[in-house]
């Protein structure tokens, strides 16, 4: 189940009051990026992509956390019955579907980590999971960035970037460029106007 676009916007606004930060704008940029890309791919829904992008980081409502934001977002959306969003709160951080590839602190209890892992292993990724992973990688808190520059920036801030994750993100970019039949940055600029 999914919230409406209006409900998703309301949920994000409310969350930003609890924990203000750049993450709110980042979420809106991911949402716009996902919608633009979905529209040019024949088999993806623009509005659904927008809603998923808008709420992928909603776990940040509950404070400044690393892996904790994944867990909090997943639980929060499940509690509201929005299982399709809950899934994205989880999958957006693991493009290789492996919990160990997470960049940042493992700031949740062992049992909670096991819970995430069990759900993660039970999923078969679809194009919505892939789309939000890619858009998350393209969007900073200010706009769309060159994907390699964005990954370099993460590498600088966290000290390392797993090569398999790096390569997977480039693979995702190529996958959607092929699907859309165009360069991703050309697409973002084109539909901006
Ligand atoms: Fe994000």
Quick rundown:
Helices cover 65% and strands 0% of the residues. The protein is mainly alpha-helical and 193 residues long.
Please indicate the count of domains.
1
* CATH fold field value: Hypothetical protein af1432
What low-confidence regions span 5 or more consecutive residues with pLDDT below 50? none
Discrete helix count = 10
Q: What is the typical, i.e. mean, pLDDT?
A: 95
Radius of gyration: 15 Å
Named once each, the bound ligands are: fe (ii) ion
Number of strands: 0
Q: How would you classify the quaternary structure? A: single chain
What would your notes on this structure say?
It is a single chain. The protein is mainly alpha-helical. It has one domain: Hypothetical protein af1432 (Orthogonal Bundle). The protein is built from ten helices and no strands. Helix 1 runs parallel beside helix 3. The model has no long low-confidence stretch (mean pLDDT 95). The structure holds fe (ii) ion. The site of fe (ii) ion has 5 residues, from helix 2.
List the helices and strands and how they pair.
Layout: H1 5-18, H2 23-40, H3 46-55, H4 67-79, H5 83-91, H6 110-122, H7 127-138, H8 147-158, H9 163-180, H10 184-190
Helix pairs in contact: 1-3, 2-3, 2-7, 3-5, 4-5, 7-9
Bound molecules: fe (ii) ion.
């Amino acid at each position: 189940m999914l919230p409406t676009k209006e409900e998703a916007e309301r949920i994000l606004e409310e969350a930003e009051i609890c924990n203000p930060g750049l993450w709110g704008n980042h979420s809106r940029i991911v949402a716009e990026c996902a919608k633009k890309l979905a529209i040019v791919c024949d088999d993806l829904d623009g509005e659904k992509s927008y809603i998923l992008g808008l709420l992928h980081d909603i776990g940040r409502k509950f404070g400044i956390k690393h892996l904790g934001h994944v867990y909090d977002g997943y639980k929060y959306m499940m509690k509201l019955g929005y299982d399709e969003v809950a899934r994205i709160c989880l999958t957006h951080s693991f493009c290789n579907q492996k919990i160990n590839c997470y960049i940042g602190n493992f700031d949740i209890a062992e049992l909670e980590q096991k819970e995430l892992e069990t759900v993660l292993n039970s999923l078969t990724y679809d194009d919505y999971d892939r789309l939000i992973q890619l858009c998350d990688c393209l969007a900073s808190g200010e706009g769309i960035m060159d994907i390699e520059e964005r990954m370099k920036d993460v590498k600088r801030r966290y000290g390392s970037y797993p090569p398999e994750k790096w390569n997977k993100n480039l693979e995702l970019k190529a996958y959607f460029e092929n699907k859309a039949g165009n360069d991703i940055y050309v697409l973002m600029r084109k539909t901006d106007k």
